[in-house]
Amino acid sequence: MFSFKEYLRHSILFVLTLVTTTLAGGEWVYGKSIMVSGDSALTWEYFFKSMAFSIPFIGILLIHELGHFFTSLYHKVRCTLPFFIPAWLGFIGAPSIGTFGAIIQMRGFVNSRVKFFDIGIAGPLAGFVVALGVLIYGFTHLPEADYIYQVHPEYADPNFQGYGEDVLDFELGGNLLFWGLGELLADPERLPVMSEVIHYPFLFAGYLALFFTALNLLPIGQLDGGHVIFGLFPKGNQWISLVAFTAFLAYAGLGVISPNQPVEELIIRIPLYVGFLFICYTKSGLSSQNKITLALTLAAAQYALAFLKPEWEGYQGWLFFGFLLGRVMGLRHPEVSEGNELDGKRKILGWIAIVIFILCFSPQPFIFK
User: Fold this and answer.
1) What is the pLDDT of residues 61-103, one digit of tens each?
2) pLDDT exceeds 70 at position 260
3) HSE-CB for 349 with a 13 A CA cutoff
4) Widest CA span of the chain, in angstroms?
5) Are residues 16 and 65 in the same domain?
6) Residue 187: which domain range?
7) Which of 60, 135, 194, 357 is most enclosed, with most CB atoms within 10 A?
8) What is the spatial distance between Cα 81 and Cα 98, in angstroms, rounded to a whole number?
9) Residue 136 sits in the same domain as residue 20
């Protein structure tokens, strides 16, 4: 079915991604890097220790993609093996998680609503089950509270007052499932705050898995969540996708333009931002006039809300993903010739996927200060 060359290419990418995520794990979990020397250098000992992050993280991504892969084979839809995308930025001193994720490409034509639904939902459900197991293990096997002193010995100094304003402050945002599991399963005396979760490899790997699960389950276009909505709502899925995308952009861009900004800055910022919003609707299926109207209306509403509630801010980190969705991937799901309605079991799974999205989605997944 697949040539030796294909097996070799995908295997090399998988191994490279395992290595890059291990390097990233060393930086996040232990503060060790191969780019420095001294006490902060990543030795072989810490490289293997960092696999406590990379193996569960990459394993969850692999199970996710295999869910798509085997379901495609079941429905006789041709596809590729999983492509893993290594991405480690430690050589330029930038933070990264070692990968841009993994994908499979569909090579066969999918002409059935049921097939789209099955292939789309199989990945997130499979990955979520494994991620849940990793998090349960992580929360029930937390190290002693003084473990953090091994990573940050300065915390043990009673005179330590923090790192100062010049050091980047980073923490993970919350989501309902991660918070709930911590409250239910963890020993309160050992439970880390969200700014320290990065030093707990199983928790960090599980958190990132929930992040990618929620991202894939957004009910937009041809994302996995878009396939789910296409199956559940055959007549209204295009509108659901457009409304969900607009709400996504509305939240992401809240605070980009504000009455509190200088007029000379707004003169440049407003037209650029409106143009950006217009581009984000490139593959929406709307007419140019409707795209312009929607972009102007959205920008005006965000500006007005910033005037009424200046303390409200969105998460501008989502804007790039919004650009990819609207300009590259598209907001409309392809139609099919065989539009059979889903059976009862599939509908239940579809609603379970929606609940999983709600539990896993974090409005501000990564917070930099």
Assistant:
1) 999 999 999 999 999 999 999 999 999 988 877 889 999 999 9
2) yes
3) 21
4) 70
5) yes
6) 4-150+167-220
7) 60
8) 20
9) yes
